[in-house]
Design goal:
0% strand, 105 residues
């Protein structure tokens, strides 16, 4: 660029014909190597992600099936009320809580 601004057309033409094509070819070769390496890495990443996706899909399906089986086969233990396991609370205050509140007064 400097040669063109200085007005030396013969030196600019020589630069354009001899130096620039070699640099262009070197850049093209370097870009090609980069694209090849990036393509190889992308392919290996796709294979790894596909494998992990398959494992996770199998795990989720197994967990859903196991959850449905547990829901279908659930039976309360003998002697236990179903409302106790469902999180229902008795409205009465346990004796130890009642004693604590009386001693605080």
């Amino acid at each position: 660029m400097q040669l063109a601004q200085q007005g030396t057309l013969t030196e600019f033409a020589e630069q354009a014909n001899n130096v620039t094509p070699a640099l262009s070819r070197a850049f093209g070769a370097s870009a090609e190597r980069f694209n090849s390496a990036a393509g190889t890495m992308l392919d290996s990443t796709r294979v790894m992600v596909d494998g992990k996706t398959s494992i996770i899909r199998t795990l989720i399906i197994t967990a859903v099936i196991l959850g449905i089986v547990i829901l279908l086969l659930y039976r309360p233990l003998p002697g236990h009320d179903v409302s106790e396991t469902a999180g229902a609370h008795s409205p009465t205050v346990p004796p130890d809580c009642a004693r604590r509140s009386e001693s605080a007064d």
